[in-house]
Amino acid sequence: MYKYDEIDQSLVDERVAQYRDQTKRYLAGELSEEEFRPLRLQNGLYIQRHAPMLRIAVPYGMLSSRQLHKLADIASQYDKAYGHFSTRQNMQLNWPLLADVPDILAELAKVEMHAIQTSGNCIRNITTDQFAGVAPDEVVDPRAMAEVMRQWSTFHPEFALLPRKFKIAVSGTKNDRAIVQAHDIGMEFYLDSHQKLAIKVWVGGGLGRTPILGTVIREHLEWQHALTYCEAIVRVYNLHGRRDNAYKARIKILVKALGIDEFKHQVEEEWAHLKDAPNTITEAELARVAQHFEPMPYEALAHHDATYDAAIASNPAFAAWAKRSLHAHKIPGYRSVTLSLKTHGQAPGDASSEQMHAVADLAAQYSFAELRVSHEQNLILADVKLSDTYALWEKARAQGLASPNIGLLTDIICCPGGDFCSLANAKSIPIAQAIQMQFDNLDYLHDIGELELNISGCMNACGHHHIGHIGILGIDKDGSEWYQVTLGGSQGNNASLGTVIGPSFSAEEMPQVIEKLISVYLAQRNGEERFIDTVRRLGVAPFKAQVYADKNTAKAGVIA
Amino acid sequence: MSHLITLQANGAQIGEDLWQLVTLPASQQEVRKQAGKIVLFKLTGEQTVTPEQMANTVIPSSGKIILPLTVFIARHAQLQARIANQEIGVCLDTHESLADLSQAQADLNALPIIAVYVERFADGRIFTLGNLLRTRYGYKNELRAVGDVLRDQLFFLKRSGFTSFAMRTDRSATEAIASLSDFSQPYQGAVDEARPAFRRYNR
Predict the structure, then answer these.
(1) Given 3.90.480.20, 3.40.50.720, 3.40.50.1370, 3.30.930.10, which CATH number is that of A6-110?
(2) Contact at CB, B44 and A154, closer than 8 angstroms
(3) A97-125 confidence digits (pLDDT tens)
(4) A124, A165 in Cβ contact below 8 A?
(5) CB contact under 8 A, A161 and B189
(6) Which of A25, A187, A374, A476 could be a cystine partner for A170, CB 3.0 to 4.6 Å?
(7) B190 part of contact set with chain A, CB < 8 Å
(8) Nearest C-alpha of chain B: how many angstroms from A205?
(9) Do residue B171 and residue A30 have CB atoms under 8 angstroms apart?
(10) Prediction ipTM score
C-alpha cells in the first residue's frame, strides 16, 4: 500500500499543528461556533448527541496492521475501546473529547493517517472496491489513481468550501462494487480499444434526501486528464451549485436543473482551458504511486488444497463460513476473506479494540500485514492462502469475527442512527439487532440466500437504504420513531433505487415485517432465484399485500 | 490599526489601506423568497442590485476608490479619466460574473486593484473567482479579498491568487499572517504555484 514520503508526512504534521491551534483558539473563545464548525468538520469532528464524533480517514479502505493496531490503541486511550467502520470505508470514534482531538491526530500522523476532509463541504475520502488488486474480474487496479486523486483533493485551495459535500468513487472491475453511480463523481477505469487506460466518468449521483443515480458525462477520458477533468466539473459546481438551501446544494440538483447536456457543455468548455495544465498526471507520477500497489510476493500454489477440502468435508460450521466469507482471488490457491463485523446482536460495523488488535495480528500472519474496510462495513484480508483459511477461521471465530452471514440478510449495512447521531430521526442499530435476532437460525438464513438489507436513521442515507434489496429508513412522525420500507434497490452495474411499499411501521413491527417479506419471497421464488430478482420479476405488489394484510383487516374491523 | 495584510516580495505585511471601498446603499425593495422551486441557472439566492441602489451610490469625486461591479459598469463612460489615472478599482460579489466585468473593461490590467467581496467566509466561490481572474483573464495587479475574511481561509485565498486581505476588524491581523504558511508543500498545482508536487520534486 502507499507509503508516505517527506511531502506526505509534512502535510499531515502541519495539519496537526494547524488544527491544534484552531482548537486552542476555539476553546479560548477567539473562534465562534460558526467559524470553528467548518474547520472541525474538515477534520472529521462532529458534535453529536453524547459527545463529539471523530471520523478518521481510511483512504480507499486500505489499512496496514500497524495502522489498525494504532486505531485500536487510540480507541482504548481516548474512547470506549471500540470503533465503528462506516459505509464510506472510514472509522469513527463515538466518544472522544474535543480537547483531545489534536493529540489523536498527532497519534494518527505517526502511522501515516489523518482525518482530513472526512466531513464538511469539500471533497471527501475517495472510495473503491474492497477487492481492488485481487479480484479476478478486475480490469484495472484503481488504487494508484485513487491515491493520485486523494493527493490532488487534499487541501485543494479552489474547492476548500464547496456548496456541499462531494464524494468520489473509483472502480476498475467489470462488476461494479464501488457504487460509482451513487457518487457525485464516479470514475470507472477500463482499457480502451487501444488497450490504453481510460475512464468512463459519471456525475450527479447520490443517495441522501433526493436519491439519484449518476449520468455518464464522458464515455472516454484518457487517464492523464483525470484531475483536470474533475477540476472542470467541480469548478462549474462550485460557481453554480446552490448555496441558499443545503438540501438542494449537491451537484446532482445542479445537474438535474441544467440537464446533463447543458451541464456537460459547461464542463467541457471549462475543461478546454484546463486540459494539459500542470495538474495533468505524468507517466512518472502514476508509475511512482503504482509501485506501492504492486502484486504481493505470492507463492506458486495449486488451485486446490487437500487440507482445505478435508476441512470443508468434515466441518459443516467451517464449510458454512467458507461459503459466505471466502472470495475468488486472481492468484491460484489464494482467497480474499471477509471478517464479519455483523455478529448477531452487535451494532453493525463496530469493532472493539481487542478485535482490532486481533485482526491486525491475523493480517500480519496470513495476509501480508494489510487489510481493507468494505462499504458493507466488514474487514477484509485480501491475500490469504487457501491452506491457511481453516486456522484463520478458528482464530477469527474466537474473536467473534466469523459469523457466516456475509452477503446474507443479517449482514446489515447500518448507520449509527439515533443512538449516536444528532442528525438521525430514529434509531437504527436496535432495528438491525432485532432483525438479526429474528433470523438467528443459520440454516434458514442460508436458505434465504443473498440479500442486502440496509438501514438509515434519517434521509441523509448513510446506511444506503435506497440501494438495499430491502431498505429501511427511520422517520420522525410527531416526535415518535417510525420506519419506512423500500424494496428492489440494488448496487452494482444494474444499480436501482428501491420503491416505498407503503405506510411506515413502528420499531416493534419491523422484525415481523421482514419475516413477511421473506415468506412471500420463499413462496414465490423460482429455483435459485435471489430475493432481488424475485422482487424485480413480481414487483412490490405481492409483498405489499402480505405485509399490510393484517393492518387492512384491522382497519376493516374498526369500520365494521 | 490597519487590518490589511498585503503579500510583499519579502513576506506578508500589515500596511495602510490606500483604497476606499464604495458600497451600495441598502435596498428598499422587499426581499422575495424563492419557494423551493428548482433553481434557475445562475440563480443561487442572491438579490440583484436595483436601479435605485445604483443611482443612489455616492462616488467620492477624488482619491482611490473601489466600486461595486454594477456601478462600475453603469458609470463606466464617466470614469474613463479616473481609470486612466489609476484611481479606480472594482469589487465583485461572489455571485457576479467575470464575463460582465471583462465586457465592460477589456483591459483588466488597467485596473490597479480588483476586490472580491465574500459575505460569509464559507462561500468558496471566492476561490474560483480568484483563480479565473489570474489564469483565464490574465489579471496581474492587486487582488484583494474583502468582507468576512478570516484567518483560516487565508492559505486557500493566497493559493487562489489573492495578494491582499482586508481582515475582519474584530480579529488580529498580525496573528493571522501565520496562517498564510499553514502548509509548506501543497500537493496540487494552483495559482501561486502552478506545478503540483510531482512536477516540483523528484518524489
Answers:
(1) 3.90.480.20
(2) no
(3) 999 999 999 999 999 999 999 999 999 99
(4) yes
(5) no
(6) A187
(7) yes
(8) 17
(9) yes
(10) 0.93
